[in-house]
Write a structure and sequence with these properties.
Layout: E1 3-7, H1 11-22, E2 26-30, E3 42-45, E4 48-51, E5 57-58, H2 65-72, E6 87-93, E7 96-101, H3 104-114, H4 119-133, H5 148-157, H6 161-168, H7 173-178, H8 183-191, H9 199-210, E8 214-215, H10 220-234, E9 238-240, E10 245-251, E11 254-260, E12 265-267, E13 270-273, H11 277-284, H12 292-299, E14 308-317, E15 326-336, E16 339-348, E17 360-369, H13 371-377
Parallel strand pairs: 1-2, 1-13, 2-9, 6-15
Antiparallel strand pairs: 3-4, 5-8, 6-7, 10-11, 11-12, 14-17, 15-16, 16-17
Amino acid sequence: MKKLIIIGGGIAGLAAGIYGKKAGYDVTIYEKNHVAGGECMGWNRNGHHIDNCIHWLTGTKEGTSLRKVWEDVGALDSNTMLAETEAFYTSCHNGQEVTLWNDLDRTEKELLLFSPEDTDEIKKFIEHVRYAESCQMPSDKPMDMMKVKDYIEMGKSMANMPKVMKEYGKINLEDLSARFQHPALQKLFIDYLPKEYIASSFIVSYATITCGNGGIPAKGSLAMANRMVDKFKSLGGNLYCNTSVEKILIKNKKAYGILLDNQKEVLADYIISAADTNVLFNNLIGNQYLNKRWEEVYQNSDRYPLISGFQIACSIDLSAYHKKDTIFFDCEPFMIGNQSVSRMSVKSFEYEPDFAPSGKTVLQANVVQYDSDYLYWE
């Protein structure tokens, strides 16, 4: 049996490990943290659970090919419930609220009543969300294994995407926001994702919610990761946590093993890096394998910014807070490094009663952050 080593026990590493076992390999995953899951993570604090990842999971709709992938890797199973939510999010500005509901018809009706002067742009937005609803991510087989027939079938499922890309594929969310006249609608379209994101990605994200293919698995991110860990182990896979890989061993441009941080060498027939690409090129294999395009990305952080967020979770009394889902709002300006922040969001986890003691819920605040902000916090 050929041996496969996977570096990184996040969702990608666990999925690779599960499919590796299904393909007949002897698979071992090495994860530097004390639990697997990567960014799909949560923490327990004083009787509360703080979820750090899933805002929605694309592929939760029964019968879709991506749903089958999630079932294959154990992320979803017949016992996995989806959280009951009503809205993608709500934006508040100058005392007015506007919501993108899971029900697209409701969203259209309310937006038209809210801002008649934006009727044309609202109808165009809703129309293209409906186009994107019919699009499914191709996941029956890897792209490099697809044949002409597969591409034809993929074209059928993606038939409306060219319309979305033509209208929204060359503008970012800041450009989309500027198309609307009402100030609250302008805020709405730059609240959820950073303003630099391509507008078409937002259209597709919202369509995933409205068509029922973007649910939130109950019990949160860590529970999903743990289901995948259980699946991997049930197939006979080996998982070593608290184990860092220092480098990939290479001879004649062929990887043949890894060197652990305790200087132990482990040999294998194949190595998969499921770690961050920066770690791959700077630590595991060296930047001599970095092509010019990747090199440009890493050297020009202004043009290719890394976008993240600062989060803080609070325990509050349910009687003191009556909003559901995610709310964006203006706040008194405050500084993070050189950035002035005047808008932020809070998300209520009321839909997960087990995340907090009786009578309480977890309220999580978020502020968008960039490279320079990370350096400030560091």
